[in-house]
Amino acid sequence: MAEPSIQSRLGLAPGTPPLVSLRGVGKVFPGVIANADVDLDVFPGEIHALLGENGAGKSTLMNILTGIYQPDEGEIIVGGRAVSFASPVDAIAAGIGMVHQHFKLVRAFTVAENIHLGWSETPRRISRAALEARTAELSSRLGLAVNPAARVAELSTGEQQRVEILRVLARKARVLILDEPTAVLTPAEARELFAALRAFVAEGNAVIFISHKLDEVLEIAHRVTILRQGRKVATDWTEACTEKSLAQQMVGREIVLSDMRGTDIGRIGAPVLALEGVSLMSEGVTLLKNVSLELRAGEILGIAGVAGNGQRELTQVMTGLAVPTTGRVWLEGADVTRAGARRIAAQGVGHIPEDRLHAGMAPALSITDNAVLREYAKPPLSLGPLFRPWRATRLAREIAAAAEVMVPSFEMPARNLSGGNQQRLVARREMRIASKVLVAAYPSRGLDVGAINTMMRYFTELRDAGVAVVLVSEELEELLTLADRIAVMFHGEIMGVVPAEGADIEAIGLMMGGRHAA
Amino acid sequence: MSYRLQRLPVAKPSVAFAARIASVVLALLTAGLVLKLVGMEPLALAGRVLKSTFGSSFGLEDLALLFTPLLYCGLAVAVALRIGAWNIGAEGQFNLGAFAAAGIALFVPGPDWAQLPAMAVTGALAGAAWILVPTLARAYAGVSELITTLLLNFVALLLVYWVSTGPWLDPSGHALATTARLPVSVPEFWGIVHWGLPVAVILAVGLAAVFAFTRWGYEVRIGGSNPGAARYAGMPVRRHLIAVMLLSGAIAGLGGMMEVAGTVGRLQGGISNNYGYLGIMVAVLARAAPLGTIATAFLMATILNGGIILQTQGLTTHTVLALTGLILLYAAIGDEAAKYRIVKLAKGA
Question: What are the transmembrane regions (chain A) (predicted)?
Fold first, then answer.
């Protein structure tokens, strides 16, 4: 047990306190536990990586640390004292600053103006030349090269990021939080950034580095904290980690959810939906590349992959929202490549879209209007051209009851419902029409564990009723629990399709990173 | 104890309605204050306006004649808003409707019974034609209809000025800047008030029914609120956009026909009298609800009529424009303010 202390491994004097500590921090949003009981220590001279899947609670935790949210439980300790930040202004005054993934710069302003915007040390009256001189001085002192007179809109993404970092450092931050900073950088820019970060921590400061790129975490960070479902899984020295070990901890060391896969082999029936050599190009970018998939009645096909690798386009092609550039889509032997969303839905294909507020609902309209989006044109809601609102309300009641959503008023705009309730309503609405296929994109995103279980139960019910379900998810655990087969996508391509039973998580992880199935 | 503003996801309808009323009252108070500061007697003026508007059947008839074109233009703008389009060009479509209807009346002989329906149809078609190019540009090229419809107003306005002072000038020589009196007119049913008014009210009720009780109305509602969701449900969003915008232009065109053949009797420059622009106010204040436009068009007509009376008291027409502007400004502030509520905070929280 004579393990050297963290301080000594970082080359600090024994007993050096952390720059910032979180103790038992928890945050609950309606229906969602964003963080629970998270401890985190960040020492001077340390680059500390924060690793986790989307929705694991990384951003919420950092928003708490920078005063955007207030924790429901636990405390933040800076310099040995518990502090509470009412806003990011308080956090930066305590030396904690964050560079967000989406830059918060005024594009029409110059670099110098952006650096000085909203800063208490900006002189009340100052000439443009003096402002630029101050900026140039800061830039050389902090070792971040920027052109003070340039307009932000004219800068490359890497340069804009440098302005953001300079903005934070100029306010004397000692803890710099970076949210997926390399996502927008070229490899050369990323190397420059890493060099700047190393120089920054060498002066006794600290960096919290949010990422889900494993290689990068191993390269830059001293220690790494892994979050899963809002909780801290572990904090480890990166020397002791491998990409495999990190991936395992990120998706779950062991799969604890009960196996929901069907057991009856004979239930899987005839092919229902098939994609044949489907490619999709848009403005010169290949979104889907030669995708062939066959979906059979009574099976759940999982689609794994890091978000943004063509999953959205795949669901759009399957539901008629996008017409493939090449290739064909077959529904029960009929060519529906160009049939369009209405005809495909009418033939029994339901669709729970990825972004329900923008694609699956009209949030400003009433719950009734939203609930009947799939069935408004059919009797009894419509007779010929006539629409009968009272029948619509009756159907909306039915759907809300089946979805177990309490609706105080069906005239209320749908945006007043919580995200989880919106998702349940959409899911129930789509299940009603999904007599052959249900395409569900990230159905559990943003839901708490209970709501996720309900959603999964819906899918198994459909599967057992002989419907083919396509389940797009980033949660491998979810796919392994539920799916019969898992297809892995990378850059618009299917890297391989593996049976979920006995699937090798590492092999899937490698395919998610772009390696073809062995 | 300290107080803090808390933002609500949506305004409560009762609060939003109260904010609307308050915005009108505040605008009137502001105008009154300014009048007081320049040495007028706002209360006496208000009394005179109310008395001459509502105190006699002549006043009410004048009011009705202002109300009619405002209702057509308000409905035109409101209908377009249903699909999420801003028709700033009701003014131009109104002019074109008047122009086309006058053309039929003056130069296409026909039996009396056929003349008025022909004028109404032509007026509506002319209004639709005037918004056709902005509609197609928006539907197929994503060009903002705000600018295109606005700019076409000036073309339409000048076209009417030109024909009424040039080629179509009254040949009798009595009038300097109008066409001859149209041989047919929309019949009157009360004093000088013609059937254009009931037709407009029926139109408003009909439109409200269409939006509430037809499949098409439901699809327009979804398409206007979230085109993404409409596409997801397989609705023909573009086709609905085109149909609704053309309908909007047609309503404004019909308004122009009623104005030239009912109220004015001749085609003359400036016949639209800013009704198209005021129609935007009417529609916005009614939140694009067809039945609501009946009430807001009435309010706007009262203000406009008040302005005419104020002119006889030495105030300029700009007073009315300023007053309508104030109402819109306060209504916008009220809409935003209705989304907040004041909460008490315990000290130190």
Answer: none
Picking from B10, B222, B231, the nearest residue to A341 by CB comes out as B231
Q: How far is B304 from chain A (nearest CA, A)?
A: 34
Give the pLDDT of residue B118. Answer: 96
Assign residue B90 the CATH number of its domain. Answer: 1.10.3470
**How would you classify the pairing of strands A382-383 and A386-387?**
antiparallel
Domain assignment of residue B14, yes or no = no
| Interface predicted TM-score (ipTM) | 0.84
**Which residues of A are less than 8 Å from B213 in CB distance?**
386-389
Question: How much is the pLDDT for B275?
Answer: 95
B243 vs A contacts (CB less than 8 Å): none
**Chain A residues bordering chain B (beta-carbon distance below 8 Å):** 320-321, 340-345, 351, 353, 358-365, 369, 373-374, 376-377, 382, 385-389, 413, 415-416
In B188-317, which residue ranges form alpha helices assigned H by DSSP? 196-213, 215-225, 227-232, 237-258, 275-285, 290-312
Q: Is B238 on the interface with A (CB under 8 A)?
A: no
Picking from B273, B112, B276, the residue whose alpha carbon sits closest to that of residue B183 is B112
Q: Which of B212, B231, B235 sits opposite A389 (nearest CB)?
A: B212
Q: Which segments of A150-242 does DSSP mark as H helices, in order?
A: 157-170, 187-202, 214-220
Residues of chain B in contact with residue A377, where contact means CB-CB under 8 angstroms, are 215
Nearest CA in chain B to A382: B215
- Chain A partners of B11 at a C-beta cutoff of 8 Å? none
Domain stops at, among A219, A250, A281: A250
pLDDT at B91 over 80: yes
B13 touches chain A (CB under 8 A): no
Contacts of A384 (CB under 8 A, 6+ apart): none
Closest by Cβ to A374, choosing from B226, B230, B233: B233
Q: Is residue A194 part of a domain?
A: yes
Residue A253 pLDDT? 46
Q: Higher pLDDT residue, B105 or B10?
A: B105
Of residues A446 and A461, the one with the higher pLDDT is A461
C-alpha–C-alpha distance, residues A248 and A257, integer Å: 16
Q: What is the rounded average pLDDT of the residues B243-266?
A: 96
- The residue segments making up the domain with residue A499 are 269-512
How would residue B200 be classed by pLDDT, with cut points 50, 70 and 90? very high
Question: What single-letter amino acid sits at A24?
Answer: G
Residue A441 in this model has a pLDDT that exceeds 60: yes
- Of B31, B80, B94, B34, the closest CA to residue B223 belongs to B80
Residues of chain B positioned with their CB less than 8 A from the CB of A389: 212-213
User: Which residues on A lie below 8 Å from B231 (Cβ)?
Assistant: 321, 341
Tell me whether residue A76 is in a domain: yes
**A327 CB neighbour count, 10 Å cutoff:** 17
Instruction: Kindly state the tokens that stand for B87.
Output: 């028709």
Say yes or no: B2 contacts chain A, CB-CB below 8 A: no
Per-residue pLDDT of B298-317, as tens digits, reads: 988 988 888 888 888 777 77
- Cβ distance A321 to B232 less than 8 Å, yes or no, reads yes
Interface membership of B345 toward A (CB under 8 Å): no
Residue A397 has pLDDT above 90, yes or no: yes
Domain that holds residue B258: 41-314
| Same domain as A130, residue A87 | no
Q: B12 vs chain A: nearest CA distance in angstroms?
A: 10
> Comparing B257 with A3, which gets the higher pLDDT?
B257
Do A84 and A70 form a contact (C-beta atoms < 8 A)? yes
**pLDDT per residue over A138-172, tens digit each?**
888 887 888 898 888 888 777 888 899 899 888 88
Same domain, A106 and A156: yes
On the question of pLDDT at B349 being above 50, the answer is: no
**Spatial separation of the C-alpha atoms in residues A254 and A269, rounded to whole Å:** 32
Structure tokens at A216: 């990068």
